[in-house]
């Protein structure tokens, strides 16, 4: 591997050659990426098993299959996305034509997290390629087997002057953040996101930050409780709760709390068995530090389901905790693990007040059969995105942009939004030479009076 400065220098030279900008080139590279993922599927699944103990089902459904859909969607839409968009022209600009040209930023840096180490590395890269950029990708050092697979796949797939993989830990990330990239795309924690944004601000590099936060699930008394229970358990405990858009805590209306809790206990047994620690398909906690952090939360409140741990396996049972309030340690930061605190409410206004009192969440999930309550939550609370009567699935459609707001992130991607994330909208006015508007010049006798009429 050449040094980082040389990689970026070579990529900038290659970008300025113009080769990455043609429609044919972009489509070809995405086609090759899809073929490479297909060839490497066994290695990807094996690496996810080794690093996180992900099952083949979870590996394919959350890390691989979605990428095929994204790639195919981009290939089918690139020609349309690339076309300059003609927009209206005001009367003051008579004789002109106005266009917006989508222009690739240039050389992009894409830093991936460890929780979905393959999909969250490749997904933004699809947007970078579609938009005509070169890129340096930085896999997470906390999932080293996946990182090695990405490196091997890209060594076979792309020239380093186009797409390069840089592996390493914190020191490597710091070195990358010192470079003159044209765009930075980061997925990870809020704290590290602040570091990335600070580094980017020193060079005024545009950033997309996909972060996290405490995302609520809310269940009112009108909800279909059986479906709500199963969908909340699925959304919370997928990937052992190590999902940025997982329900972080549950607000349930007092009248249905006991029944919903019982149904969630049943759902845990249905999805993970009576003894989840014996389930060899259950994803583990990424490392001992995170395991220790999560284990400390188990003393908060009252464990009503789960709570057992296996330090040797770095496994924690899907756990429901009751008797929790906002002062508890488990409610201070994003949990990012298989622990679901349960809070109750009497009136929806209580939920709105408490959610507003904290940073804007990345996701929100409302379970209700009442249109009024649905609209009240959507209109009253700011959040990145979410679902009504389900969890997680809003991230899996290329027709919806995905991203946070406030501390949960800035910018969005997926589908057209991925293309936009790696593109600058360049505005161009084409002026006619067939005539010249005289009153625009200060020497025109009636210029000021005409301007006042036109610009009202």
From TrEMBL:
Q: Which Gene3D superfamilies match?
A: Aldehyde Dehydrogenase, Chain A, domain 1, Aldehyde Dehydrogenase, Chain A, domain 2
**Which Pfam families would you find in this protein's record?**
Aldedh
Q: Does the keyword Oxidoreductase apply?
A: yes
List UniProt keywords, sorted A-Z: Oxidoreductase
Location of the active site: 210
Aldehyde dehydrogenase domain boundaries: 3-428
What's this protein's family per the entry?
Answer: Belongs to the aldehyde dehydrogenase family.
Name of protein? Aldehyde dehydrogenase
Q: What is the lineage of its organism?
A: Bacteria, Bacillati, Bacillota, Bacilli, Bacillales
